[in-house]
Specification:
This protein is an alpha/beta fold. Helix content is 39%, strand content 13%. Helix 13 crosses helix 14. The chain starts with 6 loop residues before the first strand and ends with a helix. The structure holds ligand F0G. Ligand F0G binds next to helix 5 and helix 14.
Length: 465
């Protein structure tokens, strides 16, 4: 069997850990910090300067030159092999985490579209504004790219059971990939605080689904104990293999921009792993000579769930104060984010920003993305809401190119959308100062008698505007 070509490194104390001796909670045994995957064989190419640990010495594998890699990844788009059809494993040279990549568990994730947002760009006076729509993945969110990587790792390591605590999307992705792999999954969800669509996915894909009378952060605490006491493999984003899959949209973005990296990438922040995963992808591409810059990575949080924003504002990103989180963007309703250090680091490394946005700003931005014919779930809309603030503050200039990472599909939370259009979503306090914008964006459902006259009257009025 081929040897593993990766090792794990603690982001706190830089200790190097062999994949075979990693703790069940994926934390450093010395300092308790999170780990990340690195590839010693890339050191020659400049990607890592660390020495390999015993048992993980790289084989004779050498990284092909950048031109050959770009060609190979394009060629695989024509292939019928399942792993070539995956937008994650198509780039497998950059995530050699499996001994047998041909056995990866895939639902043909990734290869998601990059849309231009023409109206939104015009409204903001920007020349180039795009949405990378990760909601177009098999289970409707960006989690699929990470799940194929980490769940394949779990299967290769012989686990029968996988588990996660979730605000809904991770559980949907995990349940689907576990079933594809004929494995079992355990989901812990905060009762009453996730959307019905996401809960329905976990059930449909066959997970053992538990709603706990607590919030997401409480579910994480309970799961930590479960994982310690039972032979289950943890699939929350503290699992560094998740991030290897979640870095691949960075490669797709580079490819979709003909390897000319955009100036800004804006992502929503919840448990705060995805921003660093994408940053890792961009940094690795640059180290390997595939591109010559990284975008500024900005994280946007909801005002009611903004621990990273406050940490950067008050403590220079060096410590974080857990909080009781509250926002209708339930996917990012997280008060004690596990990966805050990684997120703070990538914002610093790339020269990006951290912003917070209100409930009304999220709702309006979501409607605006909807009007582009694209749509997204509430948590994804924080990106456009945050962009508006950065443009107003002069931190993003009209000539710079901007990509918004839309993390979830609009059908993930249709209750939010319907409540917004029916005027039931926001309180008067929350809408204060934005009443006009909100009224312009709302589309009421019209109840009419069943006659063509009635419909034509509505149509004529609409045509006249
Ligand atoms: N957007 C959506 C749609 C999400 O589901 C999440 C996280 C995020 C953004 C934030 O990403 O945590 O990497 O900062 N959802 C997790 C879940 C927590 O359980 O589905 P992050």
């Amino acid at each position: 069997m081929p040897e593993a070509s990766h090792q794990l490194r603690c982001v706190g104390c830089s200790a190097v850990i062999s994949p075979d001796s990693v703790e069940k909670d994926f934390r450093c045994i010395d300092c308790g910090e999170l780990l990340e995957v690195e590839y010693p064989s890339w050191s020659a190419a400049g990607a890592s300067t660390s020495a390999p640990v015993a048992g993980t010495e790289p084989g004779p594998r050498r990284m092909p030159n950048p031109g050959a890699l770009r060609w190979l990844w394009q060629e695989r788009l024509q292939s019928r092999l399942p792993i070539d059809q995956s937008g994650v494993w198509r780039f497998r040279e950059l995530l050699p985490i499996l001994l047998q990549p041909e056995k990866a568990v895939t639902l043909r994730e990734g290869n998601t579209p990059l849309y231009s947002l023409l109206q939104n760009a015009e409204d903001l006076g920007l020349e180039q504004l795009y949405a990378k729509h990760q909601g177009m993945n098999p289970t409707g969110s960006f989690k699929d790219t990470g799940m194929t990587a980490a769940l394949s790792q779990a299967r290769e390591r012989g686990f029968q059971w996988v588990a996660c605590a979730s605000t809904g999307n991770t559980s949907a992705a995990m349940a689907a990939y576990a079933s594809r792999a004929r494995m079992n999954s355990l989901v812990l969800l905060p009762e009453g605080k996730i959307s019905w669509s996401k809960l329905s996915q976990a059930l449909d894909y066959g997970a053992v689904t538990c709603q706990l009378n607590t919030d997401f952060d409480g579910c994480v605490r309970v799961l930590a104990d479960v994982v310690r006491r039972a032979p289950v493999y943890l699939l929350n984003s503290v699992n560094p293999y998740r991030l290897e899959g979640q870095k691949t949209p960075a490669l797709e973005i580079a490819e979709q921009f003909d390897w000319q990296i955009p100036d800004h990438l804006i992502v929503p922040g919840g448990n705060l792993a995805n921003s660093s995963a994408l940053g890792k992808g961009f940094l690795e591409m640059m180290h390997l000579g595939l591109s010559n810059k990284v975008p500024k990575i900005t994280v946007v949080q909801a005002e009611g769930a903004n621990p990273l924003y406050l940490s950067l504002l008050n403590h220079d990103g060096c410590e974080i104060q857990p909080m009781q989180a509250t926002t209708r963007a339930t996917a990012i309703r997280i008060g004690n984010p596990a990966s805050w250090r990684k997120a703070a680091r990538i914002i610093r490394q790339t020269g990006g920003y951290c912003e917070q946005v209100s409930e009304a700003e999220i709702a309006v931005a979501k409607a605006e993305i909807g009007q582009e014919g694209i749509g997204c779930e509430p948590a994804s809309a924080v990106t456009l809401a945050g962009l508006k603030k950065l443009v107003r503050q002069g931190k993003i200039h009209p000539s710079e190119s901007v990509v918004l990472l839309l993390t979830g599909h609009t059908l993930k939370d249709s209750e939010f959308t319907i409540d917004f259009h029916q005027g039931k979503l926001l309180s008067a306090d929350e809408s204060a100062g934005m009443e006009q914008e909100i009224a312009q964006k709302r589309r009421p459902v019209l109840s009419l008698e069943a006659s063509s006259d009635a419909v034509l009257r509505v149509l004529e009025a609409a045509i006249k505007g």
